[in-house]
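[step 3/7] inverse_fold.run input=structure_tokens len=184
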């Protein structure tokens, strides 16, 4: 079931690919962006990670915490997504338990066919940036999502992707960050 703005974010405990435990309670009092991606070798996902890395210093300076989930094993995350040296935690969720907890959905086969024309330009961008893909892990129909969680643990904004390349607009993240700049 999809979550709504104003809901309390689901509590969780997850170990990142470096062995550090993360929980919603551990981020209490701090703004948090949680992003769910498809799989570690996904060119579209890695393009988005690359875009986030360009603005991450601003996020960090203003106290916005980030946490990412991929439906790939740790080894694949390190090989594909991790090659960009993300400075924020990444969690392997091969069983998609956290995806389910946060209400993410799968695209239908018909939607996947419709996405081909929509995401083609994004695939070209990803390819031009050097993200050519690799093995598909998890369900290829997994749609991405982003959650902006207020310091009190409520979901202030959420964004369930409408296609396999769709993430929350960066402007919304920046407004959220500005609202809670240095909240901790």
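[step 3/7] decode complete -> sequence:
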């Amino acid at each position: 079931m999809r979550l709504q703005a104003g809901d309390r974010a689901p509590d969780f405990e997850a170990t990142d690919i470096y062995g550090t435990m993360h929980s919603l309670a551990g981020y209490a009092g701090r703004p948090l962006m949680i992003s769910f991606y498809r799989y570690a070798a996904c060119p579209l996902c890695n393009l988005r990670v690359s875009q986030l890395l360009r603005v991450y210093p601003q996020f960090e300076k203003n106290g916005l915490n980030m946490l990412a989930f991929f439906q790939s094993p740790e080894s694949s995350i390190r090989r594909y997504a991790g090659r960009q040296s993300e400075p924020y935690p990444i969690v392997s969720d091969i069983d998609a338990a956290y995806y389910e907890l946060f209400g993410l959905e799968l695209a239908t086969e018909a939607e996947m066919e419709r996405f081909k024309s929509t995401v083609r330009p994004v695939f070209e961008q990803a390819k031009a940036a050097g993200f050519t893909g690799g093995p598909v892990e998890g369900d290829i129909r997994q749609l991405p999502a982003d959650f902006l969680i207020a310091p009190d643990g409520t979901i202030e904004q959420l964004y369930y992707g409408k296609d396999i390349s769709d993430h929350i607009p960066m402007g919304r993240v920046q407004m959220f960050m500005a609202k809670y700049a240095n909240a901790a």
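[step 4/7] annotate
The chain is about 35% helix and 15% strand.
Residues 109-128 form the longest helix (20 residues).
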